[in-house]
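*** Fold description ***
***
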Amino acid sequence: MFKKIILLIILTTSLFSCKPETYIATLNDHKIEPEKIDTFIQHKMDSLNIPGMSLAVINDAEIVYYRTFGVVSTNTNDPVVNTTLFDAGSISKTMFAYLVLKMVDKDVLDLDTPLYKYLPYPDIEYDERYKLITARMILSHRSGFPNWRFLNKDKKLDIKFTPGTDFLYSGEGFEYLANVIAHLNNIKKDELQGLMENHVFKPLEINHTYYTWNDYIEQNQAKGHVDGKVARGYGIHSDKPGFYASYSLQTDALNYSRFLIALMEGKGLSKTTHKQMLETQSLSPENNDTQKWGLGIGIETLGKNTIYKHGGYNLNFSSGYFFSKKPKNGFVFFTNSNTGYALNRIFLEFFNK
């Protein structure tokens, strides 16, 4: 089926602020022809039954490759174009972490002050241990909160271990922290989109990127798919329009890559907060030296190279990014399919040659 799907390729021209290259460098500076990347992606989209994709590659802190592939919906076969938005899933967390660190730089928030001192949390007040939880713990997944309370048998929020003593990936923690940031700025949580616009998107020249639902998303978002069929996932929609720091970001590869360049170069953050964001704060469950977490970002050691990464999955959309600081190379992709999550490891192997 997908061999017959329209493949739309957006060339890397100045229109998209891309620097065209004869060869594309991998995370390790190995050279690949752009045509080989095109062929590789087409093959993987066919084999994984992925309808559409947005992909950008960064070399030396510049966007050198940007393509859109496939269709926004298998029901219509309309092509993915440069204005198509994708549900980013959990890579929303990294952008939100950047906003939190901006608040740290502005002395609005301290990473190590217990959050209850800023804003008590009635949902977990029955457990006094919650008064130990800090922004640093949440951003490095050491709060003790579960990923989501609905996964518990009683559907109630709880704490799985004394905060700060272990690792457990948690979306719940990010939502508590979002409420704290909103409170400290005297706004409602769903108004954090404006804070993102002023402190992240506009300064970094990131366009048409949103955490809350609006008419532009309605008109330009790709349709999510589960096993090749159009289906609703966990993301926001017209009936669920609010701001969710953990997963509600809507964007594309070109704009997200501008954010990754900022992380590579430390744009917009003090040297102290930028350093803390990208240094090890906790170990993954494997408790080894290759899988680590900074603040809102994963860290992996591959040979002599340190890779910064995060994946996103909202059931009907999948995404991921990887980048290195030396050299300043990386890539980010978005797909409108549950099966696209497999590309996180597949692309890492391909771009880490």
User: Anything to note?
Assistant: The mean pLDDT is 93. The radius of gyration is 20 Å. The longest helix spans residues 34-48.
